[in-house]
Amino acid sequence: MKKGMIQATDAFERIVHWSLALSCLALCVTGLGMMFHSFNFIGELMGSLKSLKYVHNFTGLFFILALVFTIRMWWREAGMFSLPEDLEWMLCAGGYLWHVDKVPEVGKYNPGQKMFFLTVAFFGVIMVITGFIMWFPLSFPVELVRWMYPLHALGFVTIFAFFFIHVYLATIGSPGSLPAMLDGWVTRAWLKKQHPKWLHEMEEAGTLVVYGEEKKAAHGH
Questions:
Q1: Taking the model in full, what pTM does it have?
Q2: Which of 188, 41, 170, 34 is nearest to 110 (CA)?
Q3: What angle, rounded to 10 degrees, do the helices at 111-135 and 49-78 form?
Q4: Were 218 and a residue from 156, 168, 188, 206 both cysteine, which residue would form a disulfide, CB within 3.0 to 4.6 Å?
Q5: pLDDT of residue 22
């Protein structure tokens, strides 16, 4: 760990993030194994399609827990858009798709991250509701159960697509982002480039945690 690195996430945030990510990935893989004949071999690897269904359903329960913590933890910072800066950021795509001399300053999460969070939160809830009804189909009206399958498939396609965009932006699209969710520490240069407003807010509030330095006290008003 280099001196001067800044803490972007704490251990609990990273545990919640990876719990959601890994359970989501496991649900996608096991769901594919149940949805398409060509992916039935995934079930065979687990002994049978029945075993695959058990793994899928009980991973779903873990996903619910992770989703609840995710929404509770990040709703305040990532669930609301801040105008006009978020709109300005969106109009230039945050400088990801073409060169922008000065990217509009945004807070801890940029509008792209907020859209990803809201997509996962919204479709995550849809996956939970539809999945639960599909788990106990005899307890609900036939017409309702019938609608759950296409809705569940839609949620899967949406989350799966956003999952890959998220992975791309966390690695190739924005080098230096991944350490924030691996060990929690990022460079000041990365923070200054990606989240200057958040860096300034932490410095003002005295909440900036710098490796190798004593935590600075908040500025007097």
A1: 0.86
A2: 170
A3: 140
A4: 206
A5: 96
